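Continuing the batch. This is chain 6 of the set; chains 1 through 5 are on the previous pages. Same settings as before, nothing changed between runs. Recording input and output for traceability.
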Amino acid sequence: MTHRDRLLILAGVLLGLFLAALDQTIVATALPAIVADLHGLDLLAWVSTGYLLASTAMVPIYGRLADLHGRRRILVAGIVTFLAGSALCGVASSMLQLIAFRILQGVGAAALTSTAFIIPADLFAPAERPRYQGLFGAVFALASLVGPAVGGVLTDTVGWRWVFYVNVPVGALALAVVLLRMPTMARGVRAPIDWPGTVLLLAAVVPLLLALTLDRTLFPWHAPFTLALLATSGLAAAAFLVVERRAPSPILPLGLFRNRTVALIAAASLLTGAAFFGALFFLSLFMVNVVGVSATAAGSTLVPLTLAVVTGALLSAQVVQRTGRYKGVIVAGYLVATVGMALLATMGEHVTQGGVVWRMVVLGLGLGPSMPLLTLVVQNAAPPGQVGTATASRQFFMQIGSVVGVAVFGAIFSATLTGAVEAALRPALAQLPPEVRRSIDPAALRASLRGLNGGGGLPVTVSGPAGTAVRTAVRHGFAVSILRIYASAIPLTLVAGALMLALPEIPLRRTRPPAPGEAVAAGQEGAPGAWNG
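Output for chain 6:
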């Protein structure tokens, strides 16, 4: 296989990854138009939740299947499934249909993202891989930057259905590149699919994700339905561990995590996902309700953060490329991320938008190296034949961490907000005349605080001096609650960095994969450098 062929394959993989990444941002801007057309406002959240459940739960399964049955098959199946789901979403005539087709899209997206991170391990030796892995961060950055704008333009001009139809030509191009350029090589012995393990893994992951993403105003943590989901997940996880220990070819080989590097990377990925995505989720709330900017301006704050993450990833890749050493770079990144999180946690409630932006840039520069380098390290350390499984596991733990982080930080936010607002409101109201104090309904204020959905300001409208007191107290309450979230995230990045101190620094291999047609011994299809098509 020539270097040009490898780059063409990588381009096809990146196109597929761009599809999955774009879909996470382009659909959000079309949601109001979708509701206006299909109705079903009470089901709207499931348009995103259904996609999230499928695209997360299927990742470790596809990783193992890619090891057993080849990357090309899984990638092609993922692209076809994603395109079918996209086309069906475009013709959906009800909200229930749209949700079902979004789940199908998520199933395809999981194959796209999992194989996208695995295939570079087959194309390039670990020592030369860093120079290409920065492209993956650039793809996510591009998708996050253009997705909302493209979604808005398509919705306003040709209609919301084209938000889904636009995937078809891009996906067809990616499919053509993969089919024409990615080889299929003879493989060794193929193991049968571990159906019991697969079913139990889904039975453990899906209820857990569902419990974590439920609307807490309708299903609080102590609600019977929430507890039933968590119990189901726990029982299925226990059964999964028992079954996988006895399975001849487990869908998730537990022995893989006896590898010190793989186990440490999995733990760090979980913590990184929780810290970064959990903290990021509340950024728009802080910008709107504390800094006082519009929702559009709040969204623009993500642009420098995204660019900082990509910059951190590219710079760290260059350092590793030249030195061949990664441990110090990863640890330094987590230290910078911890500083960034501490800077966010110490913001005052009178901080400006620029003050928030430069702190987020520090956080992004610190977390940028973790994304590509954790993947590189786990691939370099994974046993032959389990590179795909190890890569997908890292991605899976990162995604699970992000969901857990949002849920836990959301609980901190809810537990803090009302008390902080009331504590700030009491002294302010004490200075107002009694007739003004009586104009505020405490019960209505509490209900409004509980009903906040993360997008805008306080629903209750109070005018005059009382209104000023309420708005000031609400601003203070949001600042206290969200800054406490950032403070809670500091130990997560700190512990992740500490775990990386225990990471063995295995020299990066410099051998390249053999060209298609070179012999691979039976049963050694995952050997270092072997093409796993």
